[in-house]
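Milestone M4 deliverable, item 7.
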Amino acid sequence: MSRTVPSRIASALAGVIALVIALSGCALLEQDPSSPDVPRIEQDEDLGELTVYEVDTAGELVPAAAGLDAEVWDLFRRVVTPAYAAERILWYKVGDDPDSDLLAWVVESEEDPELWNLAVNLSAAEDEELLLLTLIHEYAHLLSMGPGQTDESGDCLARPASAPCAEDGGYLAAFHARFWASYGEEAPAYQEADDAVTAAFYADHEEDFVSEYAATNVGEDFAEVFTAFVAEPRPSDPGESRVAAKIAFMWEWPELVEIRERLRSEFGDIVWVEF
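Output delivered:
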């Protein structure tokens, strides 16, 4: 799941997040074993050089980070809570490529499928609001793919191509059933992101989505809507539009409402700006 530079503003939501199931093009460079306090380095095909920190069971970085690396991690911990960061994140990776449209992503860890890796493009940190919204969006991906949310039975493989392997009764399964199942085979496949397919699908259903990238798949749509849910007032009329109905969907989950209120209390009313 990676956040990219947004292409439009819709319903005051700006953001483009892409779901990435596995990182590709990363090669681990050797670290001097005599320098345990120096983070290791990876090469990434999108962001170039990534500095890699391990997250310990207390949610602290190993080795300790400084400067912007540490500031972004501290902001992420405020977004998800320190306890959640310690419980769910194994590796924290930072790059800095202003020419890349990737802002951040989360991906399942190969070492432990119950843990995730977070990567952030530090060029996004120049815009504090953009960075905050990006991290909230990544939080939405973690929530929708967390414990009790994924279907491990294998039966999900028989579901429509647009459906994720999500546990019945979980966020993504319910969101798909209500807002994506009706598209049928027209909907983009869940794990096959294609810019041309997304653009065509969005062009036919622009009013259904908070942003063009939300039309990539149901997971991206959920994360975009969750970010709007946090930042926007509660819709006065959920029947006014499909976007309003999607935001109203989030209000049906008390635990998500609790998270929304915590974030708004932590950061104040989030101000949306055009960028």
